[in-house]
Amino acid sequence: MPVGTAGTVKAVPQDVLESLGAEIILGNTYHLYLRPGHEAIRRLGGLHKFISWPRAMLTDSGGFQVYSLTQLRKVSDEGVHFRSHLDGSSHFFTPEHSMDVQIALGADIAMAFDECTEYPADRDRARESLRLTMNWARRSLDHLRAHQNEVVWHDEFENRTQSLFGIVQGGVYTDLRRESAERLVEMDFDGYAIGGLSVGEPREATLEVISEVLPLLPTNKPRYVMGVGYPGEIEQYARMGVDMMDCVLPTRAARHGLLFTSEGRMNIKNKQYAEDQNPPDPICSCMVCSRYSRAYLRHLMHAGESLGGTLNSIHNLAYYIGIMQRVRAQLLSHRDENSPIPTAASGTNPTPH
Length: 353
Ligand SMILES: [Zn+2]
Hints:
TIM Barrel; about 40% helix
């Protein structure tokens, strides 16, 4: 899922996202709540209508952004007090309030309000944080179920419903992770996410958590790993059985001139590309690689032209979406043949590390 923080996947228009094959994008509750405000978005017909995105959308709970405001927040059983990074104003988010904001935004998938456990966190701290997250998961579910009929679906989106996903936490402690997964499954969410990863833990810990938790989550519901990853990682996780992932990496890296290609990572600002007339990625058929040269993309970045960030973002998203399309096609063909699924190591996509 490309990440559309403030109602836009930065620098990329919605029609381009559609033509790239993006089927779902993510919006950040915290940012949209602060600006333009969830009530304004409700009055404008909901997030789909407001940003003109007819395909699926997911909103996070705001928990992760609040977690990022380490100096500006105070957590209690009831919820989180925090100060806006925009103007310092005071706000209070509870699970119920997060659900109300997400109902007003009206995405297809809402996320339970959770506390993202930081890394490193000792066992007691991780356990206490998990207690809070499980309590908030229950409150999120009860509140959303009671108010689900308040979602305003614009005419063209009739017959849609808003789903709610629970979020597995527990830090790097696999027993806490298992407990978290089992309790959420008992609560019966519409889908399940593994959160609290990509917060500085070693790659092996990320893998261990995913491989411990995935088998505990029902395969007939979406399984989502939040906030990952590099191209080689998303391919590996998809092959392990992860259905959904989101990451700002392809677009954020693009705005800094970093391209992901079949030949590895490329810093397009490097001098070696100054007169390179090749496309950014010779085997990519995206609208950028079909038309523009490395030399031109480098020039745009050096000239501070905003088109540079746009074109880089389009290529990186095409590359990421291409990985998932290829994995999906392989999974489907292997399922049909009833043969083993190839591992990431035997796949055709070179890891750009
Ligand atoms: Zn391309």
